[in-house]
Every structure is written in structure tokens, then in C-alpha cells.
Amino acid sequence: MAGDPTVGGGSAAHPVSGGKGSRSSTRHRQFRDRVDDLQEMFSGLQSARKESRSADAAVLEE
């Protein structure tokens, strides 16, 4: 659900640009996916440290 308004909002923000809206929407989605991946890795690192899994923490830090 949260992804739907951003896609619609991206094309509405650039009504004159035509194809640019879909391209920026795609880039925004890729950026969000990368941020989500980083957040997931950071969360895993925090869990590994909290649970004293030093080998896992070392891998995630790299």
C-alpha cells in the first residue's frame, strides 16, 4: 500500500515531462529497494551483536 501513492505522486509531480515521470518513478523504486536492503542488513547486524554472534556481526560489518 505504501508504494502505490509514491508511484502516483511521482507522475503527478512531473505532468509535463511525459516519459521522465516513469523513469524517475523506476529510479525511486530502485532507491527504496536499496534503502530497504540496507535497513535489513543493519537490523541483522544489531541482532547479531545483541545475541553475541560475533562471526555473523563480522560478516555483516564487511
From TrEMBL:
Bias regions of kind Gly residues — which residues? 1-11
Q: What is this protein called?
A: Transcription factor VOZ1-like
Could you name the domain of life of the organism this protein comes from?
Eukaryota
| Residue segments, region Disordered | 1-33
Organism field: Panicum miliaceum
